[in-house]
Amino acid sequence: MSHRSAAGHHHHHGSNSAPREVRVFVSSTFRDMQNERQTLMNDAFQQLRLLCERRGVAFSAVDFRWGITDDETADGQALAMCLAEIDRCRPYFVGMLGERYGWSQQRSSGSVDEALARTFEVASAKYPWVRGFTDRSITELEFIYGALQPELSASGGASSARASASSTTSNSSSSSSSTSSRAFVYLRDPLYVTKTFALGSPERPDFESEGDESYRKLSNLKQRVLQSSKCVVREDYANPQQLSEWVLEDLTRAIEQDFPAPPSSLSSSSDSVLLLASPSVDPDASSSSWTHHATQQSSDFVGRATLLRLLTSFVHTGNSAIVTRSMPASAAASAAPPAASNLVVLTGAGGIGKTALLSRWLLSLRSSAPAALPIVHFVGAGTPHCTSANHIVLKIMRELKSSLSLSMPLPELSDPELVQQFTALLHSAQTALLARKQFVVLVVDGVDQLSSLEDRNMRWLPHDWPSSFRVILSAADTVSHGTQAAAGDDDDDDDEEPAAGSDEARGSGRKSRALKALLSRELPVIELGTLVEAERAQLVTSYLASLSKKLDANLVQTLARSRNTGTHSHSHSLTARITHYHVCQQDRHCFFAWCSINWHTMAPTTSSTNSSGRW
User: Fold this and answer.
1) Would you say 527 and 331 are in contact if contact means Cβ atoms under 8 Å apart?
2) How far are the Cα atoms of 32, 66, 98, 241, 416 from residue 190, in angstroms, in the given order?
3) 209: closest CA among 95, 65, 102, 96?
4) How confident is the model at residue 297 (pLDDT cuts 50, 70, 90)?
5) Quick one: 243 and 357 in the same domain?
6) Are residues 174 and 103 in the same domain?
7) Which residues contact 370 (CB under 8 A, 6 or more apart)?
8) How far apart are CA 40 and CA 245, in angstroms?
């Protein structure tokens, strides 16, 4: 459930109706805050992303140093896009102020900046209150909308905003701004410039005030910020690293309040991201854990339409023969036809998009197969319990017993006959499912990541499943040498070294033990290939859109043509690393072409090129 705090901020909580997402809008001038923004991206925001992942929450930070195309800038869209993004990020806002005021009309100059005037004109069509502030900087308008007057709507008038902008009335609670606020403002130590740059330093002018008029406007803005009860203010940070530490502290506290960590116990959803969407309980509540994870994993899923339909057909028929018939002719001719089964295996190279495919398909299952009861387990998605076969088995048994009101007692985790009792419970569940005219869809994603050698031998998985079950297992086709050594796959004396030049050798690892064990059962296999160029372009665009960024079409194609964007994980790695950089427009073509070849050597902590923009 969500509510509005006393300060008027809309807060997200760990409910099923509110989005489990933290989007933070970052506001500041650009030239003098490059180091601050980069340090936040590399340090605080990375740690916050991990914090959110542990809570099943998506985290992103919106940094507009780049991501607005040339056409959008020429059309005067910049301010309107910033204000729209503040709305999308509410209530989370991080603002920094130094000694620069930012891009604004300077009345003392006697001239008009036509590009800026156009930007305000375009924004005022959706945000009429902007018309009262055409002499202010874009940065100040971001502060007004995101921190000082968050209650302003797109159709709001200028009067209330102007009152706030001109008010100098002290607020008694300003010294301890509302702890419920999610708007955080940080003021840099005014002596930072003199402490950091010597007189005559070529960098110093980029950190100093633009002039007397800008100095007065910035002083007024800082005064209003300090007097406001609608944002949390911290003064005099000494350097970018201290700023990053403060932002991490403040947002960690906010996220822990808005999205409390689930209780830690074996039966909790946080243990294994494994839950059953059953009509016997609230479907939204029971499926919340895996659906949140699936939503994150499939947020920018593209393509694979044929495979999505194939999986749906399989669960409707309960017969894997439909998968066998859909195999490419070359694959079918080179292998003995698999036996009919209600189990199928999804495989492909690591990072090819198996989890994204299953996640997108699972989220559509309720509408495409309303009689299905999905039990979903993402092996690599949680605590170490996630990677234990015994925990997975016991969790499935618990969910079946609970949702189908079965009377069989559950064994202990260490019971040596756990697998035999699991098989017995499946047959009891079959009777209940037939009576209800329902069926279970069991998905275990990433069985190659199970922690023990014995678990990856897959002996815990029954060979024969009742007809009311459809089982889908995914496994990477090979294991890297590093993973083999860590997990013990090199201990298999039956494995043969891959021939030089073979598919396995090119994959830099042997066939994964879990996949070998499944193939030995002659199960039908669905194999994922790399994305085609059009899908790569769509994936790059989709991922950037999630960060509120865009690239010109020719730059998107530069990335899409790269061999490094053929899989979901490689595309994300490359595009995510690029978002750590800010590059002047004239350098971008060379930069992105270089990135598409050398992405694996790019250090995310590398400093960005200083902006030559006016903000």
Assistant:
1) yes
2) 13, 27, 7, 16, 68
3) 102
4) confident
5) no
6) yes
7) none
8) 9
- Decide if pLDDT at 271 tops 60: no
Domain span at residue 170?
A: 21-258
Domain count, the chain: 3
For residue 294, give both structure tokens: 């699936």
User: Same structural domain for residues 518 and 571?
Assistant: no
Give CA 43 to chain center in angstroms. 17
At CA 221, angle to CA 85 and CA 116, rounded to 5? 55
Handedness of CA 370, 372, 373, 379 (dihedral sign): negative
395: amino acid identity, one letter? K
Domain holding 466: CATH number? 3.40.50.300
Same domain, 420 and 566: no
Q: Say whether both 41 and 124 belong to one domain.
A: yes
Which pLDDT band holds residue 494 (cuts at 50, 70, 90)?
A: very low
- Please report whether residue 13 resides in a domain: no
Torsion sign, CA atoms 125, 131, 135, 140: negative
Instruction: Calculate mean pLDDT across residues 16-22.
Output: 69
Tokens of residue 163, six digits = 């009152």
Q: How far, in Å, CA of 296 to CA of 485, rounded? A: 30
CB neighbours of residue 447 within 10 Å: 26
Q: What residues contact 163, with CB distance under 8 A and at least 6 apart?
A: none
Structure tokens given for 279? 């009509």
* Confidence band of 63 (pLDDT split at 50, 70, 90): confident
Q: Write the pLDDT tens digit of every residue in 304-316.
A: 888 888 999 998 8
Q: Contact 528/311 with Cβ under 8 angstroms? A: no
SS (H, E, C) 218-233: HHHHHHHHHHCCCCEE
CA dihedral over 249, 253, 255, 256, signed as positive or negative: positive
User: What pLDDT, in 10s, does the model give residues 192-229?
Assistant: 999 999 988 999 999 999 999 999 999 999 999 999 99
Whether residue 299 contacts residue 58, with contact meaning beta carbons closer than 8 Å, is answered with yes
Residues 6+ apart with CB under 8 A from 380: 386, 387, 446, 449
Between CA 52 and CA 44 the distance in angstroms is: 12
Residue 159 has pLDDT above 50, yes or no: no
pLDDT of residue 303: 78
Residue 494 lies in a domain: no
Are 133 and 250 part of one and the same domain? yes
**CA angle at residue 276 from 18 to 326, to 5 degrees?**
105
Instruction: Looking at the structure, tell me whether residues 56 and 173 fall in a common domain.
Output: yes
Distance CA 153, CA 126 (A): 9
Residue 606 domain-assigned?
Answer: no
Six-digit token pair at 158?
């200028």
Q: Is residue 550 part of a domain?
A: yes
- Judged by DSSP in three states, 89 sits in helix
